[in-house]
Amino acid sequence: MADSISGSVLDAGCGTGDTALFLASRGNRVTGIDLLEEPIRRAKLKAAERELNVTFLVKDAMTLKDWTERFDNVIDSGLFHVFSDEDRKRYAEGLATVLKPGGRLYLMCFSDEEPGTQGPRRVSKKELHAAFAQGWDIESIEPTRVETRPDLKEFTFSEGGPKAWFAVIRRAS
Q: Exposed site from 25, 52, 62, 143, fewest CB < 10 Å?
């Protein structure tokens, strides 16, 4: 999938920046945002160590609608599923603001097919379709697995990692 990503990239909920750094190493102009200061501090250190030019900002993804920056692509690897229904709506509106027309959102979230209740809130395909019904074209929603940290022993997920959805969603022109 990384081969299809070119141009400017926003990594929403970037954490310590691994995805943002990977995409920057492939020649993309990347900005990573996270609500928490510590992950952003660590991401900046990684960027400096690897001599990669990535912009990392402490920023609330709920405020994207107020931002003037525009991107060709947005990566969301585990942020969407943490929001309430109302916040998902605000987040999708913000994404529509920062993503250029024709740009793509690459979104991975926990699936409602993952049994149990541990970990993040589960998301159904129907919820993804509803969140991106207006002004978006859903190109694909495919089942996948999430790689989790091995030190999270208190969580029990499906063999092979928690079930998730990987969606490619294009901003309508």
A: 143
* DSSP 8-state secondary structure symbol assigned to residue 111: B
Residues 68-97 pLDDT 10s: 999 999 999 999 999 999 999 999 999 999
Q: In what order do the strands lie in the sheet with 71-77?
A: 54-58, 29-34, 8-12, 71-77, 99-110, 163-171, 136-145
Q: Which residues neighbour 34 within 8 Å (Cβ) at sequence distance 6 or greater?
A: 13, 14, 15, 40, 43, 56, 58, 59
Give the C-alpha separation, 28 to 21, whole Å: 9
User: Residue 122 has which token pair?
Assistant: 């589960």
Six-digit token string for 117? 């209740």
Which residue type, as a one-letter code, is found at position 58?
V
